[in-house]
Amino acid sequence: LRRAYGSQVISFLGLLRELLELDPAVLPDYQDVVERSFDRFILEHESGYNADQLRFIRAIKATFMTKQHLERADLYEAPFTTFGQDAVERLFSPAQVDEILALAAALLHL
């Protein structure tokens, strides 16, 4: 994309927005969509999560934004190991983990 169009954008949505001269509010970049989706998820569940859980979810968001995917096994590797051994199991119920993974899976298909 960079060579063909001389653009510095890093995503297809960013390229479309640049070529069509659209406002970012009309066609947000993938990173913006991911950021907003995780933030909305946190707001919807905030009252049910404690501070450690919220920090863990924010780490999931940062990891997802970097890797652009997330699988259950990823939750047992760095950077999640900084929360302690098997932190995901201590912090979340299996249903909560499934819900977080479902969010990540839905974002893969955007």
How does this structure look, described?
59% of the residues lie in helices and 0% in strands. The chain has 110 residues and is mostly helical. The protein is elongated and about 45 Å long.
Distance between the termini: 19 Å
Give the oligomer, counting copies of the same chain as homo and different chains as hetero: single chain
Q: What's the order of the H and E elements?
A: HHHHHH
Please count the beta strands (DSSP E, at least 2 residues each).
Answer: 0
Number of helices: 6
How much of the polypeptide forms β-strand, as a percent range?
A: under 5%
Sketch the major β-sheet.
Answer: none
Structural class: mainly alpha
Secondary structure layout plus pairing:
Elements: H1 2-5, H2 12-19, H3 30-45, H4 51-67, H5 87-91, H6 94-108
Protein traits:
110 residues; mainly alpha; 6 helices; 59% helix; elongated
Short précis:
This protein is mainly alpha-helical. Helix content is 59%, strand content 0%. α3 packs antiparallel against α4.
